[in-house]
Amino acid sequence: MNYIISNSGVVCAVAGGKSYTFDKGHQNYSSLLTYLKNGNLEHFEASYDVASTIEHYCEGYVHVDRGSLTWQGVPMPELFTDRILKMRQEGFNIDPMLNFLNNMNDNPSDKAIVELFDFMENQHLPITDDGHFLAYKAVDKDFKDLYSGSFDNSVGSDVSVERGLVDSNRDNGCSHGLHVGSIDYVSSYGNVDIKNMNDEGGSDNSDGGNQIVICKVNPRDVVSVPSCSRFQKLRCCQYEVVSLFNDIFETSVHVTDAGLKKVARTEEWQHEIAAKLENVMEVLNRAEVCSVS
To answer: Is the residue at 146 inside a domain?
Structure first.
């Protein structure tokens, strides 16, 4: 990868046998320079022309037009569009988002699916390669939940309750169920100063030893997103505690040690995803109509 930068910041580069020219007006200008310097061809190409790389990767069944995505003519929800574009800008493929869609469609509650979209609008909630998502939880020094002190949230724990015992009414703020949240909500609720975390994941202030853990949640297990907290906390029936909190997630995808399990992109699979997207869009459209009427 060879490149020249003019005094005005215009970059002329040759990468992967192709010529590229861009200036400071490109939305990924800084990232492109970094990828050129590091010789990272895949990330450079994805960041240079996000739209064409998505269409090429998806072999034509995904179309990008003015920042909106369609799958075989079916419009994608804004959340999916934003996440997919960000994934490609960061150099990831879109399989994690497809796995997320598969899992979400296993959720028995249309209402929970709609509310999950509200929660995922919060920042720093990456999707995992198997289509789950990561969120935060405040616990005490013994890894017990702060509300009841009865659930063990040690790293590696699978925490679950019967779905029927989780409050599905988003108008009830404090109620039954397993809770995770955004980093802003969780650090405030647990009185944990994330700017002064020590090496063990706790903070060095008078928080009583409270700490933050990272939880992995399957979209299938989401039950409700209380509105009282500005959609920053979520009730679910199951999650896995995967690690202590060390730093805020900055990427849209978190790759696990197991790595990405790719699906066979057959025509049958493409039609199946289109049908699932249609279902999600119908659910979201019904919710929008109800909120207006």
So the answer is: yes
Residue matched to tokens 């505690």: 241
Distance CA 13, CA 3 (A): 4
Tell the burial category of 260 from Cβ atoms under 10 Å away from its Cβ (0-12, 13-18, 19+): middle
DSSP state string for 66-134: TTEEEETTEEPPHHHHHHHHHHHHTT--SHHHHHHHHHHTT-S-HHHHHHHHHHHTSSS-PEETTS-EE
What pTM does this model have?
0.78
Per residue, the 3-state secondary structure of 236-255, as one string, reads: ECEEEEEEECCCCCCCCEEC
Range of the domain at 142: 110-254
pLDDT digits (tens, 9 = 90+) for 65-105: 766 789 998 988 888 888 888 887 777 878 898 889 889 98
Distances (CA, A) of 197 to 14, 112, 188: 44, 34, 14
Q: Do residues 107 and 219 touch, judged by C-beta distance below 8 A?
A: yes
Q: What is the largest CA-CA distance in the chain?
A: 64
178 part of a folded domain: yes
Q: At what angle do helices 41-48 and 29-38 cross, to 10 degrees?
A: 160
Find where tokens 């790389």 sit.
53
pLDDT tens for each residue of 44-76: 877 777 777 777 778 778 887 766 789 998 988
Work out how many domains the chain is built from and give that number. 1
Any domain includes 12: no
The neighbour count for residue 62, using CB atoms within 10 Å, is: 20
50 occurs within a structural domain: no
